[in-house]
Protein backbone atom coordinates (compact mmCIF):
# COMPACT_ATOMS: atom_id res chain seq x y z
CA UNK A 1 0.00 0.00 0.00
CA UNK A 2 1.31 3.46 -0.94
CA UNK A 3 2.40 5.86 1.79
CA UNK A 4 0.70 9.25 2.06
CA UNK A 5 4.00 10.90 1.05
CA UNK A 6 4.16 8.84 -2.14
CA UNK A 7 0.54 9.75 -3.00
CA UNK A 8 1.22 13.46 -2.45
CA UNK A 9 4.38 13.24 -4.58
CA UNK A 10 2.49 11.56 -7.44
CA UNK A 11 -0.25 14.20 -7.31
CA UNK A 12 2.38 16.97 -7.32
CA UNK A 13 4.22 15.48 -10.31
CA UNK A 14 0.97 15.06 -12.28
CA UNK A 15 -0.04 18.67 -11.64
CA UNK A 16 3.48 19.99 -12.25
CA UNK A 17 3.69 18.23 -15.64
CA UNK A 18 0.31 19.73 -16.57
CA UNK A 19 1.65 23.16 -15.60
CA UNK A 20 4.81 22.52 -17.66
CA UNK A 21 2.78 21.62 -20.77
CA UNK A 22 0.54 24.69 -20.28
CA UNK A 23 3.58 26.97 -19.81
CA UNK A 24 5.11 25.75 -23.09
CA UNK A 25 1.80 26.35 -24.87
CA UNK A 26 1.31 29.84 -23.42
CA UNK A 27 4.86 31.07 -23.94
CA UNK A 28 4.61 30.08 -27.62
CA UNK A 29 1.38 32.11 -27.85
CA UNK A 30 3.11 35.01 -26.11
CA UNK A 31 6.00 34.96 -28.58
CA UNK A 32 3.47 35.49 -31.39
CA UNK A 33 1.56 38.17 -29.44
CA UNK A 34 3.79 39.76 -26.74
CA UNK A 35 1.07 42.24 -25.70
CA UNK A 36 -1.49 39.58 -24.68
CA UNK A 37 -2.15 40.45 -21.02
CA UNK A 38 -4.42 37.44 -20.52
CA UNK A 39 -1.68 34.98 -21.53
CA UNK A 40 0.87 36.82 -19.37
CA UNK A 41 -1.46 36.61 -16.38
CA UNK A 42 -2.00 32.87 -16.94
CA UNK A 43 1.78 32.18 -17.19
CA UNK A 44 2.32 34.18 -13.99
CA UNK A 45 -0.45 32.21 -12.21
CA UNK A 46 0.96 28.83 -13.29
CA UNK A 47 4.48 29.71 -12.15
CA UNK A 48 3.20 31.11 -8.84
CA UNK A 49 1.21 27.91 -8.13
CA UNK A 50 4.11 25.69 -9.13
CA UNK A 51 6.46 27.66 -6.86
CA UNK A 52 4.07 27.38 -3.88
CA UNK A 53 3.31 23.66 -4.41
CA UNK A 54 6.98 22.76 -4.85
CA UNK A 55 7.97 24.69 -1.74
CA UNK A 56 5.19 23.07 0.31
CA UNK A 57 6.29 19.54 -0.58
CA UNK A 58 10.03 20.30 -0.24
CA UNK A 59 11.26 20.48 -3.89
CA UNK A 60 13.30 23.65 -3.40
CA UNK A 61 15.15 23.62 -6.77
CA UNK A 62 11.83 23.60 -8.64
CA UNK A 63 10.52 26.30 -6.30
CA UNK A 64 13.64 28.47 -6.84
CA UNK A 65 13.60 28.26 -10.67
CA UNK A 66 9.81 28.89 -10.69
CA UNK A 67 10.35 31.95 -8.51
CA UNK A 68 13.01 33.40 -10.86
CA UNK A 69 10.74 32.84 -13.89
CA UNK A 70 7.72 34.26 -12.03
CA UNK A 71 9.73 37.42 -11.25
CA UNK A 72 10.81 37.75 -14.90
CA UNK A 73 7.21 37.52 -16.15
CA UNK A 74 6.12 39.97 -13.46
CA UNK A 75 8.62 42.50 -14.93
CA UNK A 76 7.26 41.83 -18.43
CA UNK A 77 3.66 42.33 -17.18
CA UNK A 78 4.68 45.66 -15.59
CA UNK A 79 6.40 46.77 -18.83
CA UNK A 80 9.77 46.93 -17.03
CA UNK A 81 11.28 44.30 -19.33
CA UNK A 82 10.58 43.82 -23.05
CA UNK A 83 9.87 40.38 -24.49
CA UNK A 84 12.85 40.48 -26.88
CA UNK A 85 14.30 37.48 -28.75
CA UNK A 86 17.16 37.19 -26.28
CA UNK A 87 14.82 37.22 -23.28
CA UNK A 88 12.48 34.73 -25.00
CA UNK A 89 15.37 32.28 -25.41
CA UNK A 90 16.32 32.45 -21.73
CA UNK A 91 12.71 32.04 -20.59
CA UNK A 92 12.10 29.08 -22.95
CA UNK A 93 15.24 27.42 -21.61
CA UNK A 94 14.16 28.19 -18.04
CA UNK A 95 10.83 26.45 -18.62
CA UNK A 96 12.68 23.49 -20.21
CA UNK A 97 14.81 23.32 -17.08
CA UNK A 98 11.64 23.16 -14.96
CA UNK A 99 10.45 20.22 -17.07
CA UNK A 100 13.74 18.41 -16.51
CA UNK A 101 13.66 19.02 -12.76
CA UNK A 102 10.06 17.74 -12.54
CA UNK A 103 10.79 14.65 -14.67
CA UNK A 104 13.88 13.81 -12.60
CA UNK A 105 12.43 14.18 -9.12
CA UNK A 106 13.37 10.56 -8.36
CA UNK A 107 16.82 11.04 -9.94
CA UNK A 108 18.08 14.39 -8.61
CA UNK A 109 21.60 14.16 -10.11
CA UNK A 110 20.22 13.95 -13.67
CA UNK A 111 18.25 17.18 -13.41
CA UNK A 112 20.65 19.70 -11.85
CA UNK A 113 19.97 23.32 -12.93
CA UNK A 114 22.35 24.72 -15.57
CA UNK A 115 24.53 27.40 -13.76
CA UNK A 116 24.89 29.45 -17.00
CA UNK A 117 21.15 29.55 -17.37
CA UNK A 118 20.58 30.44 -13.71
CA UNK A 119 23.01 33.36 -14.12
CA UNK A 120 21.09 34.61 -17.15
CA UNK A 121 17.80 34.43 -15.26
CA UNK A 122 19.39 36.46 -12.47
CA UNK A 123 20.66 39.04 -15.01
CA UNK A 124 17.11 39.41 -16.41
CA UNK A 125 15.60 39.70 -12.93
CA UNK A 126 18.22 42.02 -11.43
CA UNK A 127 19.11 44.35 -14.32
CA UNK A 128 15.56 45.50 -15.02
CA UNK A 129 16.77 46.63 -18.44
CA UNK A 130 16.99 45.46 -22.05
CA UNK A 131 20.83 45.29 -22.05
CA UNK A 132 20.70 41.49 -22.17
CA UNK A 133 22.02 40.87 -25.71
CA UNK A 134 24.95 38.83 -24.34
CA UNK A 135 22.45 36.29 -22.99
CA UNK A 136 21.73 34.78 -26.42
CA UNK A 137 25.40 34.05 -27.05
CA UNK A 138 25.52 31.31 -24.39
CA UNK A 139 22.16 29.78 -25.32
CA UNK A 140 21.07 27.12 -27.77
CA UNK A 141 17.60 25.95 -28.80
CA UNK A 142 16.71 22.45 -27.63
CA UNK A 143 16.28 20.33 -30.78
CA UNK A 144 16.62 16.93 -29.05
CA UNK A 145 13.55 17.24 -26.81
CA UNK A 146 12.04 13.97 -25.53
CA UNK A 147 8.29 13.72 -25.13
CA UNK A 148 6.76 12.02 -22.10
CA UNK A 149 3.28 11.59 -20.67
CA UNK A 150 2.31 11.63 -17.01
CA UNK A 151 1.59 8.31 -15.27
CA UNK A 152 -1.47 9.92 -13.66
CA UNK A 153 -4.68 11.01 -15.34
CA UNK A 154 -7.68 12.96 -14.08
CA UNK A 155 -11.06 11.28 -14.52
CA UNK A 156 -14.48 12.98 -14.40
CA UNK A 157 -16.39 11.77 -11.35
CA UNK A 158 -19.46 10.91 -13.48
CA UNK A 159 -17.35 8.34 -15.34
CA UNK A 160 -16.41 6.73 -12.02
CA UNK A 161 -20.09 6.86 -10.97
CA UNK A 162 -21.03 4.94 -14.11
CA UNK A 163 -18.21 2.45 -13.55
CA UNK A 164 -19.32 1.84 -9.95
CA UNK A 165 -22.91 1.24 -11.12
CA UNK A 166 -21.65 -1.37 -13.59
CA UNK A 167 -19.61 -3.03 -10.82
CA UNK A 168 -22.79 -3.10 -8.72
CA UNK A 169 -24.67 -4.92 -11.47
CA UNK A 170 -21.75 -7.33 -11.82
CA UNK A 171 -21.79 -8.06 -8.07
CA UNK A 172 -25.48 -8.99 -8.22
CA UNK A 173 -24.88 -11.39 -11.14
CA UNK A 174 -21.75 -12.75 -9.43
CA UNK A 175 -23.72 -13.71 -6.31
CA UNK A 176 -26.37 -15.33 -8.52
CA UNK A 177 -23.78 -17.40 -10.42
CA UNK A 178 -22.15 -18.46 -7.14
CA UNK A 179 -25.51 -19.61 -5.78
CA UNK A 180 -26.33 -21.58 -8.98
CA UNK A 181 -22.91 -23.27 -8.96
CA UNK A 182 -23.51 -24.43 -5.37
CA UNK A 183 -26.95 -25.80 -6.30
CA UNK A 184 -25.55 -27.71 -9.30
CA UNK A 185 -22.57 -28.94 -7.24
CA UNK A 186 -20.32 -28.78 -10.30
CA UNK A 187 -16.63 -28.57 -9.34
CA UNK A 188 -15.53 -26.77 -12.51
CA UNK A 189 -18.35 -24.23 -12.28
CA UNK A 190 -17.59 -23.75 -8.56
CA UNK A 191 -13.94 -23.04 -9.38
CA UNK A 192 -14.82 -20.49 -12.07
CA UNK A 193 -17.46 -18.79 -9.92
CA UNK A 194 -15.02 -18.56 -6.97
CA UNK A 195 -12.47 -16.90 -9.25
CA UNK A 196 -15.17 -14.55 -10.55
CA UNK A 197 -16.01 -13.65 -6.93
CA UNK A 198 -12.39 -12.73 -6.16
CA UNK A 199 -11.96 -10.71 -9.35
CA UNK A 200 -15.24 -8.84 -8.85
CA UNK A 201 -14.36 -8.05 -5.24
CA UNK A 202 -10.96 -6.70 -6.29
CA UNK A 203 -12.61 -4.67 -9.06
CA UNK A 204 -15.14 -3.26 -6.58
CA UNK A 205 -12.45 -2.14 -4.14
CA UNK A 206 -10.29 -0.73 -6.96
CA UNK A 207 -13.14 1.43 -8.29
CA UNK A 208 -14.06 2.55 -4.77
CA UNK A 209 -10.40 3.36 -4.09
CA UNK A 210 -10.21 5.46 -7.28
CA UNK A 211 -13.10 7.59 -5.96
CA UNK A 212 -11.41 8.38 -2.64
CA UNK A 213 -10.24 11.89 -1.87
CA UNK A 214 -8.64 13.40 1.22
CA UNK A 215 -11.03 15.01 3.73
CA UNK A 216 -8.48 17.84 3.74
CA UNK A 217 -9.72 18.93 0.31
CA UNK A 218 -12.83 20.15 2.20
CA UNK A 219 -11.34 20.86 5.65
CA UNK A 220 -8.67 23.21 4.27
CA UNK A 221 -11.35 25.59 2.96
CA UNK A 222 -12.59 26.33 6.49
CA UNK A 223 -9.84 28.54 8.03
CA UNK A 224 -10.86 31.47 5.79
CA UNK A 225 -14.60 30.76 6.31
CA UNK A 226 -14.19 30.63 10.11
CA UNK A 227 -12.24 33.87 10.07
CA UNK A 228 -14.91 35.68 8.01
CA UNK A 229 -17.83 34.49 10.18
CA UNK A 230 -15.93 35.26 13.41
CA UNK A 231 -15.19 38.83 12.22
CA UNK A 232 -18.85 39.35 11.25
CA UNK A 233 -19.99 38.02 14.66
CA UNK A 234 -17.31 40.08 16.53
CA UNK A 235 -15.82 36.92 18.02
CA UNK A 236 -12.34 35.41 18.22
CA UNK A 237 -12.12 31.80 17.07
CA UNK A 238 -9.16 29.47 16.66
CA UNK A 239 -9.82 26.55 14.27
CA UNK A 240 -7.94 23.28 14.72
CA UNK A 241 -7.93 20.76 11.85
CA UNK A 242 -7.05 17.09 12.46
CA UNK A 243 -7.12 14.10 10.11
CA UNK A 244 -7.01 15.90 6.75
CA UNK A 245 -5.40 12.83 5.15
CA UNK A 246 -8.35 10.54 6.02
CA UNK A 247 -9.92 9.37 2.75
CA UNK A 248 -13.60 9.22 1.78
CA UNK A 249 -15.72 8.82 -1.35
CA UNK A 250 -15.71 12.10 -3.28
CA UNK A 251 -19.51 12.09 -3.75
CA UNK A 252 -20.09 11.70 0.00
CA UNK A 253 -17.75 14.63 0.69
CA UNK A 254 -19.62 16.69 -1.91
CA UNK A 255 -23.02 15.92 -0.32
CA UNK A 256 -21.92 16.86 3.23
CA UNK A 257 -20.14 20.09 2.19
CA UNK A 258 -23.14 22.37 2.79
CA UNK A 259 -24.03 20.50 6.00
CA UNK A 260 -20.56 20.98 7.46
CA UNK A 261 -20.62 24.65 6.48
CA UNK A 262 -23.99 25.03 8.26
CA UNK A 263 -22.67 23.31 11.41
CA UNK A 264 -19.54 25.50 11.48
CA UNK A 265 -21.70 28.63 11.16
CA UNK A 266 -23.95 27.37 13.96
CA UNK A 267 -20.97 26.66 16.21
CA UNK A 268 -19.66 30.22 15.83
CA UNK A 269 -23.00 32.08 15.89
CA UNK A 270 -24.85 30.04 18.57
CA UNK A 271 -22.10 28.17 20.40
CA UNK A 272 -19.00 30.29 20.92
CA UNK A 273 -19.50 33.35 23.13
CA UNK A 274 -18.20 36.87 22.53
CA UNK A 275 -14.74 37.57 24.08
CA UNK A 276 -16.12 39.56 27.02
CA UNK A 277 -18.66 36.81 27.89
CA UNK A 278 -15.91 34.17 27.76
CA UNK A 279 -13.65 36.15 30.08
CA UNK A 280 -16.54 36.54 32.58
CA UNK A 281 -17.07 32.77 32.47
CA UNK A 282 -13.37 32.16 33.20
CA UNK A 283 -12.56 31.01 29.65
CA UNK A 284 -9.88 32.26 27.26
CA UNK A 285 -11.32 35.09 25.15
CA UNK A 286 -10.49 33.14 21.99
CA UNK A 287 -13.00 30.34 21.28
CA UNK A 288 -11.80 26.93 20.11
CA UNK A 289 -13.31 25.07 17.18
CA UNK A 290 -11.97 21.62 16.23
CA UNK A 291 -12.79 19.78 13.01
CA UNK A 292 -11.47 16.22 13.10
CA UNK A 293 -11.73 13.11 10.94
CA UNK A 294 -10.83 9.50 11.69
CA UNK A 295 -11.51 6.02 10.37
CA UNK A 296 -13.76 3.63 12.29
CA UNK A 297 -13.89 0.25 10.56
CA UNK A 298 -15.95 0.79 7.38
CA UNK A 299 -16.94 4.36 8.29
CA UNK A 300 -15.41 7.81 8.55
CA UNK A 301 -16.18 9.79 11.70
CA UNK A 302 -16.17 13.59 11.33
CA UNK A 303 -16.49 15.53 14.57
CA UNK A 304 -17.02 19.26 14.97
CA UNK A 305 -16.41 20.46 18.55
CA UNK A 306 -16.68 23.93 20.04
CA UNK A 307 -15.86 25.06 23.59
CA UNK A 308 -18.81 27.46 23.72
CA UNK A 309 -21.78 27.78 26.03
CA UNK A 310 -23.36 24.43 25.16
CA UNK A 311 -27.05 23.79 24.47
CA UNK A 312 -29.61 25.22 26.90
CA UNK A 313 -31.78 22.16 27.66
CA UNK A 314 -34.42 24.28 29.42
CA UNK A 315 -34.78 26.33 26.27
CA UNK A 316 -35.04 23.14 24.16
CA UNK A 317 -37.81 21.84 26.47
CA UNK A 318 -39.77 25.10 26.24
CA UNK A 319 -39.45 25.18 22.44
CA UNK A 320 -40.53 21.50 22.15
CA UNK A 321 -43.60 22.16 24.33
CA UNK A 322 -44.48 25.34 22.37
CA UNK A 323 -44.32 23.37 19.10
CA UNK A 324 -46.46 20.59 20.66
CA UNK A 325 -43.73 17.99 20.09
CA UNK A 326 -44.10 16.81 23.69
CA UNK A 327 -46.40 17.57 26.62
CA UNK A 328 -45.26 19.60 29.62
CA UNK A 329 -45.90 16.56 31.86
CA UNK A 330 -43.70 14.23 29.79
CA UNK A 331 -40.82 16.54 28.91
CA UNK A 332 -38.92 16.17 32.21
CA UNK A 333 -38.84 12.36 31.86
CA UNK A 334 -37.20 12.43 28.43
CA UNK A 335 -33.53 11.38 28.32
CA UNK A 336 -31.05 14.04 27.21
CA UNK A 337 -30.38 12.21 23.90
CA UNK A 338 -34.07 12.37 22.97
CA UNK A 339 -34.27 16.06 23.87
CA UNK A 340 -31.35 16.74 21.52
CA UNK A 341 -33.15 14.86 18.74
CA UNK A 342 -35.79 17.67 18.69
CA UNK A 343 -33.11 19.99 17.25
CA UNK A 344 -33.32 18.05 13.99
CA UNK A 345 -37.08 18.55 13.60
CA UNK A 346 -38.19 20.88 10.74
CA UNK A 347 -38.51 24.52 11.81
CA UNK A 348 -36.94 23.96 15.22
CA UNK A 349 -34.57 26.87 15.88
CA UNK A 350 -33.29 28.48 19.06
CA UNK A 351 -31.94 31.59 17.29
CA UNK A 352 -33.14 34.71 19.12
CA UNK A 353 -32.07 37.13 16.41
CA UNK A 354 -31.30 37.16 12.71
CA UNK A 355 -27.65 37.77 11.87
CA UNK A 356 -25.81 37.48 8.58
CA UNK A 357 -25.15 33.82 9.33
CA UNK A 358 -28.04 32.55 11.47
CA UNK A 359 -31.72 32.73 12.34
CA UNK A 360 -33.01 32.50 8.78
CA UNK A 361 -35.18 29.42 9.27
CA UNK A 362 -32.72 26.93 7.79
CA UNK A 363 -32.51 24.40 10.58
CA UNK A 364 -30.59 21.26 11.39
CA UNK A 365 -33.30 19.20 9.64
CA UNK A 366 -31.65 20.10 6.32
CA UNK A 367 -28.33 18.76 7.64
CA UNK A 368 -30.08 15.63 8.93
CA UNK A 369 -31.73 14.97 5.56
CA UNK A 370 -28.41 15.28 3.72
CA UNK A 371 -26.70 12.83 6.09
CA UNK A 372 -29.68 10.43 5.84
CA UNK A 373 -29.55 10.52 2.04
CA UNK A 374 -26.12 8.88 2.03
CA UNK A 375 -26.93 6.38 4.77
CA UNK A 376 -25.00 8.23 7.46
CA UNK A 377 -25.78 9.19 11.05
CA UNK A 378 -25.45 12.41 13.04
CA UNK A 379 -25.44 12.79 16.82
CA UNK A 380 -25.03 15.67 19.26
CA UNK A 381 -23.17 15.76 22.56
CA UNK A 382 -23.43 18.90 24.68
CA UNK A 383 -22.60 20.11 28.17
CA UNK A 384 -23.88 23.43 29.47
CA UNK A 385 -21.06 25.94 29.76
CA UNK A 386 -18.49 23.53 28.28
CA UNK A 387 -19.41 23.19 24.61
CA UNK A 388 -21.06 21.06 21.92
CA UNK A 389 -19.99 18.34 19.50
CA UNK A 390 -21.67 17.20 16.30
CA UNK A 391 -20.58 13.69 15.29
CA UNK A 392 -21.09 12.56 11.69
CA UNK A 393 -20.71 8.84 11.00
CA UNK A 394 -20.38 8.46 7.23
CA UNK A 395 -20.07 5.40 4.98
CA UNK A 396 -17.00 5.21 2.74
CA UNK A 397 -19.16 4.36 -0.31
CA UNK A 398 -22.72 5.16 -1.40
CA UNK A 399 -23.49 2.34 -3.83
CA UNK A 400 -22.25 -0.64 -1.80
CA UNK A 401 -23.57 -0.99 1.77
CA UNK A 402 -23.04 -3.47 4.55
CA UNK A 403 -26.46 -4.84 5.50
CA UNK A 404 -28.13 -7.37 7.81
CA UNK A 405 -30.45 -9.82 6.03
CA UNK A 406 -33.58 -11.22 7.67
CA UNK A 407 -37.00 -12.65 6.89
CA UNK A 408 -40.53 -11.58 7.81
CA UNK A 409 -43.52 -13.68 6.68
CA UNK A 410 -41.38 -15.56 4.09
CA UNK A 411 -40.12 -12.34 2.48
CA UNK A 412 -36.46 -11.23 2.54
CA UNK A 413 -35.49 -7.80 3.86
CA UNK A 414 -32.24 -5.94 4.58
CA UNK A 415 -31.30 -3.17 7.03
CA UNK A 416 -28.12 -1.09 6.49
CA UNK A 417 -25.59 -1.87 9.24
CA UNK A 418 -24.96 1.82 9.90
CA UNK A 419 -28.38 1.99 11.62
CA UNK A 420 -28.07 -1.39 13.37
CA UNK A 421 -27.06 -1.23 17.04
CA UNK A 422 -27.28 -4.92 18.01
CA UNK A 423 -29.25 -8.16 17.63
CA UNK A 424 -30.82 -9.89 20.68
CA UNK A 425 -33.00 -12.93 21.35
CA UNK A 426 -35.66 -12.52 24.07
CA UNK A 427 -38.27 -14.76 25.61
CA UNK A 428 -41.80 -13.53 24.97
CA UNK A 429 -42.29 -13.17 28.74
CA UNK A 430 -39.61 -10.41 28.75
CA UNK A 431 -41.77 -8.21 26.51
CA UNK A 432 -44.22 -6.02 28.45
CA UNK A 433 -47.39 -4.43 27.11
CA UNK A 434 -47.91 -0.87 28.36
CA UNK A 435 -51.04 0.61 26.83
CA UNK A 436 -50.71 -0.26 23.15
CA UNK A 437 -46.91 -0.36 23.20
CA UNK A 438 -44.53 -3.33 23.67
CA UNK A 439 -41.51 -2.47 25.82
CA UNK A 440 -38.36 -4.44 26.63
CA UNK A 441 -35.48 -3.80 29.02
CA UNK A 442 -32.37 -4.21 26.87
CA UNK A 443 -28.97 -3.57 28.48
CA UNK A 444 -30.57 -1.37 31.13
CA UNK A 445 -32.48 0.70 28.58
CA UNK A 446 -36.28 0.64 28.07
CA UNK A 447 -36.85 0.32 24.33
CA UNK A 448 -40.07 0.27 22.31
CA UNK A 449 -40.36 -3.02 20.41
CA UNK A 450 -42.54 -3.58 17.32
CA UNK A 451 -43.37 -6.63 15.25
CA UNK A 452 -42.31 -5.77 11.69
CA UNK A 453 -45.02 -8.01 10.21
CA UNK A 454 -47.61 -5.61 11.62
CA UNK A 455 -45.99 -2.67 9.83
CA UNK A 456 -45.29 -4.45 6.55
CA UNK A 457 -48.47 -6.46 6.09
CA UNK A 458 -51.33 -5.38 8.40
CA UNK A 459 -53.79 -2.60 7.44
CA UNK A 460 -52.90 0.53 9.42
CA UNK A 461 -56.25 0.72 11.23
CA UNK A 462 -55.73 -2.82 12.60
CA UNK A 463 -52.23 -2.18 13.95
CA UNK A 464 -51.69 -2.48 17.68
CA UNK A 465 -48.05 -2.00 18.57
CA UNK A 466 -48.36 -3.96 21.79
CA UNK A 467 -50.22 -7.02 20.51
CA UNK A 468 -47.91 -9.82 21.70
CA UNK A 469 -50.51 -12.51 20.84
CA UNK A 470 -49.60 -12.25 17.12
CA UNK A 471 -45.93 -13.16 17.69
CA UNK A 472 -44.70 -16.52 16.42
CA UNK A 473 -42.87 -18.80 18.86
CA UNK A 474 -41.60 -18.39 22.41
CA UNK A 475 -38.25 -16.70 21.60
CA UNK A 476 -38.16 -13.50 19.56
CA UNK A 477 -35.32 -12.25 17.33
CA UNK A 478 -35.03 -8.50 17.78
CA UNK A 479 -32.88 -6.08 15.74
CA UNK A 480 -32.13 -2.89 17.69
CA UNK A 481 -31.96 0.04 15.28
CA UNK A 482 -31.10 3.65 16.04
CA UNK A 483 -31.98 6.93 14.38
CA UNK A 484 -31.72 10.50 15.68
CA UNK A 485 -30.83 9.32 19.22
CA UNK A 486 -33.96 7.14 19.32
CA UNK A 487 -33.76 3.35 19.53
CA UNK A 488 -36.38 0.89 18.32
CA UNK A 489 -36.52 -2.90 18.52
CA UNK A 490 -37.76 -4.66 15.36
CA UNK A 491 -39.05 -8.23 15.83
CA UNK A 492 -38.32 -10.43 12.78
CA UNK A 493 -39.07 -14.07 11.98
CA UNK A 494 -35.58 -15.25 10.96
CA UNK A 495 -32.13 -13.70 11.03
CA UNK A 496 -29.62 -14.47 8.30
CA UNK A 497 -26.20 -12.98 7.68
CA UNK A 498 -24.39 -9.72 7.14
CA UNK A 499 -23.26 -9.02 3.58
CA UNK A 500 -22.44 -6.20 1.19
CA UNK A 501 -25.41 -5.30 -0.99
CA UNK A 502 -25.88 -2.99 -3.97
CA UNK A 503 -28.95 -0.85 -3.33
CA UNK A 504 -31.07 0.12 -6.32
CA UNK A 505 -33.70 2.85 -5.99
CA UNK A 506 -37.35 1.87 -6.39
CA UNK A 507 -39.20 2.99 -9.51
CA UNK A 508 -42.55 4.80 -9.54
CA UNK A 509 -45.02 4.40 -7.88
CA UNK A 510 -43.16 2.33 -5.24
CA UNK A 511 -40.69 5.16 -4.60
CA UNK A 512 -43.46 6.94 -2.65
CA UNK A 513 -43.51 4.24 0.06
CA UNK A 514 -41.45 5.81 2.84
CA UNK A 515 -40.45 2.65 4.70
CA UNK A 516 -38.47 1.23 1.75
CA UNK A 517 -35.08 2.72 0.97
CA UNK A 518 -34.49 0.62 -2.16
CA UNK A 519 -34.16 -2.94 -3.40
CA UNK A 520 -31.41 -5.46 -4.06
CA UNK A 521 -31.19 -8.90 -5.64
CA UNK A 522 -29.81 -11.83 -3.63
CA UNK A 523 -27.64 -14.61 -5.01
CA UNK A 524 -30.65 -16.93 -4.97
CA UNK A 525 -32.39 -14.65 -7.45
CA UNK A 526 -34.88 -13.42 -4.84
CA UNK A 527 -35.73 -9.76 -4.56
CA UNK A 528 -34.81 -8.25 -1.20
CA UNK A 529 -36.37 -4.97 -0.03
CA UNK A 530 -34.11 -2.58 1.88
CA UNK A 531 -35.83 -0.93 4.83
CA UNK A 532 -35.47 2.80 5.50
CA UNK A 533 -34.71 2.94 9.23
CA UNK A 534 -35.22 6.74 9.56
CA UNK A 535 -38.73 6.46 8.05
CA UNK A 536 -39.68 3.45 10.23
CA UNK A 537 -38.41 5.15 13.40
CA UNK A 538 -40.30 8.36 12.59
CA UNK A 539 -43.46 6.34 11.89
CA UNK A 540 -43.46 4.57 15.25
CA UNK A 541 -42.31 7.63 17.20
CA UNK A 542 -45.25 9.62 15.81
CA UNK A 543 -47.72 6.81 16.60
CA UNK A 544 -46.39 6.54 20.14
From TrEMBL:
GO molecular function: ATP binding; phosphorelay sensor kinase activity
Record-linked InterPro entries: Bact_Chemotaxis_CheA (IPR051315), CheA-like_dim (IPR004105), CheA-like_homodim_sf (IPR037006), CheW-like_dom_sf (IPR036061), CheW-lke_dom (IPR002545), HATPase_C_sf (IPR036890), HATPase_dom (IPR003594), His_kinase_dom (IPR005467)
A Pfam family the protein falls into: CheW
Protein role: Involved in the transmission of sensory signals from the chemoreceptors to the flagellar motors. CheA is autophosphorylated; it can transfer its phosphate group to either CheB or CheY.
Catalytic activity: ATP + protein L-histidine = ADP + protein N-phospho-L-histidine
Enzyme class: transferase
Annotated CheW-like domain residues: 400-542
Keywords: ATP-binding, Chemotaxis, Kinase, Nucleotide-binding, Phosphoprotein, Transferase, Two-component regulatory system
EC number: 2.7.13.3
SMART domains assigned to the protein according to its UniProt record, in alphabetical order: CheW, H-kinase_dim, HATPase_c, HPT
Organism from which the protein derives: Pontibacter qinzhouensis
GO BP annotation list: chemotaxis
Domain Histidine kinase: 195-398
Residues in HPt domain copies: 1-105
GO cellular component: cytoplasm
Residue list for modification Phosphohistidine: 48
Protein name (Swiss-Prot/TrEMBL): Chemotaxis protein CheA
